[in-house]
Amino acid sequence: MNDKRAVLAAAGDHHALVLSSFMLFMVVALFGSVFAGLNGDAPKEFYIGDRQSSAWKNGLALAGCYVSTSLLLSVTGVVATIGFDGITTTTNVLLSLGVLLLLVRPVQLSGALTLGDLFTLRAPGIAPRVAAAVTVLVVTAPLLVAQLIAAGSVTAALLGFSGLGIQQMCAVLIGGLVVTCGMLSGAKGITVVQVLAAVITLTAMIFASVAVLRLFHGDVDSLIASADAHSTRPGRYLNSGGLFNTGGTPHLDFAAGQVMTILGGACMPHVLNRVAAAKDTATARRSVRYAAGVVAFVCVTVVILGFGASARVGAHTILGAQSNADDSLMLLAGSLEGGLGAGLGRLLFTALACAIFLSVLAVVGSITLAAAGTLARDAYHHLVQHRRSDPARELMVARVAVLLFGSLGILLTVVSQGHSAALLAQFATSVAASTVAPVLIYTFYWDRFNRTGLLWTVYGGIILSVGLQVSSPSASGGPQAFLPNSDIAWFDHPTPVLVSVPAAFLLGWAGSLVGRRRAQRHQAEGTSTTSTVLLIGRTAAAPVSTAPTAVRRAVE
Questions:
Q1: pTM of this prediction?
Q2: How distant, in Å, are the alpha carbons of 157, 440, 448 from that of 515?
């Protein structure tokens, strides 16, 4: 830990200048986002914006959703300390955009504002909306905490401190600012932040990567060799199996990690909202392509900076007394000041801090809006008011939902600060891969999917993914676990997706068969009883004809 403080001290003589520059940038970004969203007064605009953005703007905003602190900090740390598995993670982020491209057309044509709207395409009724609300909250809450943990750590580093208390205070401050911004601006303001986050992050990461390559005279082989020598796996740095090596099947766990990132990353609720915000299907598809280009450049820089962090700082210094390597990017920035000169070093340190702050604001803002949207529209508008709520009142409920959800996230962050943010992000991604992905694939590509199949898929996927994740080595029982001092692990794999994802698909298939037979039985009984029973049976069956015509055309 003392070595880590010594590295950060490379930028410590000028903390006042760095911090003042960072605070000025933060105020400008917040003011710009709030100002951009003040003229929206409809719930639809609050949830996803006005659907008037061009393809490049929507693509940059989508890239801002993808470039989270988990990618910038956690994945950079994995590359720095372990090597190959971090590189494959960046590849999987890009592959998840390929999966998203398959879902773009039907999602955009559905006209959905929330995940509940998507879940009710083939399964009308209140129960699918409740299932969607549960899914959104289970996915977004840990992801929100993961982002705020990283924000607290980075802001504390800017202040020159590394204590847990100051990190918690910084997380509360940043969280409060983000929640305020979300309440005032809605999706239109967050879109501005997402675009700014993508541009600033890409610029800062490219600048930092060039600085690292310059120190090694452009010799990538020399950079990799030095990173290998200073990693936790010298001689095996470019071999797989370092990240998922907690049980006896590292290659199976490695495959599970790929499935989790690819499916879960494409089906995050806030990412789907960003796709739904496009004005038409052609714009949506071009937006995903533009986003893939931006994210590809960021992923390349993440790998280069991971190499640089290992070579310049060293894996053992990065880890210090912690069980994670989330500080690797800022430690690298602090170590580069001596090689670049004081002025350029401070500029790099400040630029990366601003990029991380913007990524927090963009991702946390979009996550909070996704959660608030499902609470206001799916729970309040449909469940409480039975679709009779006043738009102004619904908008007020949405703003209150932002406040409540954000406050809960801040409270959980204070409790969780000091633990690995990557594990919380992994948890959220596992749940999304085990619930949202099967439901959307069945909804758009299987005509016989119905209400019973949807409910079995959602609740079965949540129970399996949450239960197995809590019982895994990544949650407890080891030095890198979220709870290293406890041991309740009995499931030998760090991620449950190779069990939960196939099980969710199987449950969806079996539930749809059960629901269809139940509907046929009700229909048969209805011929000799009442037409009311017949109507219930048809609703339970939820045939393809209940889906919107535009969606049917999209998937045919």
A1: 0.85
A2: 55, 18, 10
